[in-house]
Write a structure and sequence with these properties.
31% strand; alpha+beta; 172 residues; single chain
Amino acid sequence: ILNSMWTFKVKRDTDGNVIKWKARLVVCGNEQEEDSGNYAPTIHNELVRLFLALAAASDAEIGTYDITGAFVSEPLPADSPPMYMRLPKAYTQGKEVIVRLKKSLYGLREAPRLFYNGLSKQLEAQGFKKSMFDPCLFIKSFPDGSKQFALVHVDDILLISPSHTTVQAFKT
């Protein structure tokens, strides 16, 4: 049974004014047993620089996307052992409440890998193919021979696309 806690953050604008207050329930993943299979690949910096240079040279369109709620969107695999979490006592009026997790949650060691696997499936369903060179590079070919590139880094996507229309189609 893993412990959990609340984390709080204040978002401010450039003048220091409070924009919003954020609260996030996180699992204490440091209490999990170590497992070498709980990683998610990340893009190499050299590849990002290369593709930005190629985009500039070919006058391609660039889009960046930050996926909100990334680590809380993927269900835990059905074949994995059940995972339990103790809710913070301040949340449960001092009572001990233990819940079974059905989906990934911030702090779990598996969260980045589960998110990457789900994102990969979504990108492949949209016609992208994973590069054999780098698992964070996804390539989509269009009938006219042009290509669209999606570079994934944790929960961010850098999209390099031949036209503004294809960028908007990706965003949709």
